[in-house]
Amino acid sequence: MSETAYLASPGPAAPAATGLPWRRWASQAGAVIRLDLRKGFRRPVLLLVLAAVPVFIALMRVLFSAHAVHDTADVAEGTNFYAWMYQVLILRLELFLVGVAVFGNLIRREVLDRTLHYYFLSPIRRELLVAAKYLTGVLVTFTLFGLSTVISFALAYLPHDWTAVSHFVFHGPGLHQLASYLLVTFLACVGYGAVFLALGFFFKSPAVPALGMFGWESIHFLLPPLLKQFSVIHYLQSLCPVPISEGPLAVLSDAPAPWVSVAGLIALAVVLVAVSGWRIRRMEISYDES
Amino acid sequence: MSDRQVVFENVSKFYGEVLGVNRVSLAIPPGITGLVGPNGSGKTTLMNLMVGLLRPSRGRISVLGMDPRRPEELFKHVGYSTQYDAFPPGLTGSQFIRTYLRVHGYTAAEAETLTWKALERVGLTEAAGRKVAGYSKGMRQRVKLAQAISHQPSVLVLDEPLNGLDPMARSEVINLFRELADGGLHVIVSSHILHEVDLISDQVVLIHGGYVIAEGDIANVRDEMEEEHPAQVSIRCDRPSLLASQVFALDSVMEARIDDDGKGVLVRTRDADRFHLLLNQVVLENGLAVEAVAPADADVNAVYQYLIGSNGEKS
């Protein structure tokens, strides 16, 4: 093929549109998400292990139900077991760690692999790039931990009497509780994800801010009401359908209204993703220094 | 005019207190431009500034009238093959190119067509289905080149693109650069191997220690240095002693020295054009059989050495 022919048929030009090119942006975001799913989450061993832990614990309770369950007709026992496991293990520990591991490394991993420049050398708005990578993180973490939430929730009631469980699920608060836990899982992925995505732009290693934030989130029950409002867990916990005791030292405060928690966490995520977009717009690539 | 050029206006880049490049002003026209300098001279910094991977500490850059700070516009028209020898894990050669074309915004069908076109251009179609991780260094260079040209840019920026290529592939790639440049593209190539750039460039930018020390057509750059560094001309002929005695009598000749092998003469002259005219007369009048006449120090290597001086300082 001659060069003249090559240049004379420059292939399909990237679409030029009047107004905002939403279709182009959607197509580019889709490409980033597909590529990130392919190369970033090829072997999500850590995520799978973390997601499997609650399932494993709930399964152990099923296997040893003779010792672990006192009254199979009392579904409240399953409800309390799950409330503790969800809030202590899944919400405060696992979803937090997942936020650090996944979202704190969305950009950092590309820098360490020296592959970020391939994105930067494409005609894609960097803000769109960061938003697409964030969506990939939310998609992956919510899929895994949403499944983990559903399966472990189901297993929590498996040792109990089927009639009581059926009544609890279909005529009682069971489905509503499951939906609430799923909502909290989703908002935790969204909230912690946005926090650690943004922190990744301000710190070379996400470990340092993660430790600080973990400490802050861990002692949130000791904080005065005003300071509680500056923790993510305060809003997430308020959406959990079954409260758990935080001990005698806990400082009591009014839980925010559900709509405030949901809207607040989403607004926080939007602001932090926008901050990340602003940072990536000014980001330079110098892998040697990184 | 700047809509057809890559323009640097008094551009400086500092990494903290370390100088990257300083006060660079350039206007790069279409054709092949060689960025020449030793490792650490600022070539990669200049290229990264050109495509917005770095931001200038001072000054302004425009690429065909576009601002490198707007990648969404710039990279519709610019392709860059970096020096970084890293690839997204798990992808084959064709997947690598196709995937990033999708990030450009092309449809699956368009990306497929462009991918194979680019792979064909660099002679990598047979290895397209293999994982890039298993490629040789030369193949990795070529797949990076294919990725850079896949969206058919107007400006192609290539950082040390010939590294790791075997002689055959090197020749093919150089021919490709020439074809692309003849088609009106800006092909901007960096290399620390001076004679390599000499072979392929229409114009050169010589960089040393972060400063541009010369730019333009290499012959013109050499001519401008004639006062300080007289041109050297090598003449291979059957009777070098006679030729030496004849040319030494010419006004424009400063020195005529017989080669060590006794089969030629090296002449130093302050006026190469005039010397070449007079040389014809000498040859005809004395019936000399001349095998070759060639400049001995008009290549990039010699010019670079003259410019930076023997101790590496800019002269």
| Class based on secondary structure composition and strand pairing of chain B | alpha/beta
Count of DSSP-assigned helices of chain B? 11
**Approximately what portion of the residues of chain A adopt beta-strand conformation?**
under 5%
**Radius of gyration of chain B, Cα only, in angstroms?**
23 Å
Brief digest:
The complex is a heterodimer of chains A (290) and B (315). Chain A is an all-alpha fold. Helix content of chain A is 71%, strand content 0%.
Explained architecture:
The complex is a heterodimer of chains A (290) and B (315). By secondary structure, chain A is mostly helical. Chain A has one domain. Chain A is built from 14 helices and no strands. In chain A, α5 runs antiparallel to α8 (126-157). The longest helix of chain A has 32 residues, at 126-157. With 315 residues, chain B is an alpha/beta fold. Chain B has two domains: 2-222, Rossmann fold (3-Layer(aba) Sandwich), CATH 3.40.50.300; 230-296, Alpha-Beta Plaits (2-Layer Sandwich). Chain B contains eleven helices and 13 strands. Chain B has helices spanning 43-50, 71-74, 93-104, 108-121, 137-149, 167-182, 194-200, 218-224, 240-248, 272-286, 300-308; strands at residues 6-15, 18-28, 31-36, 58-63, 78-81, 155-159, 186-191, 203-208, 211-216, 231-237, 253-258, 264-269, 290-295. In chain B, β1 (6-15) and β2 (18-28) form a beta hairpin. At the A-B interface, α1, α2 and α7 of A face α2, α3, α4 and α6 of B.
Strand-helix topology:
The complex is a heterodimer of chains A (290) and B (315).
Chain A: H1 3-8, H2 22-40, H3 45-63, H4 65-68, H5 75-103, H6 108-112, H7 116-120, H8 126-157, H9 162-170, H10 174-202, H11 207-218, H12 225-228, H13 232-239, H14 258-281
Helix pairs in contact in A: 2-8, 3-5, 3-8, 5-8, 5-10, 8-10, 8-14, 10-13, 10-14, 13-14
Chain B: E1 6-15, E2 18-28, E3 31-36, H1 43-50, E4 58-63, H2 71-74, E5 78-81, H3 93-104, H4 108-121, H5 137-149, E6 155-159, H6 167-182, E7 186-191, H7 194-200, E8 203-208, E9 211-216, H8 218-224, E10 231-237, H9 240-248, E11 253-258, E12 264-269, H10 272-286, E13 290-295, H11 300-308
Parallel strand pairs in B: 3-7, 3-8, 5-6, 6-7
Antiparallel strand pairs in B: 1-2, 1-4, 8-9, 10-12, 10-13, 11-12
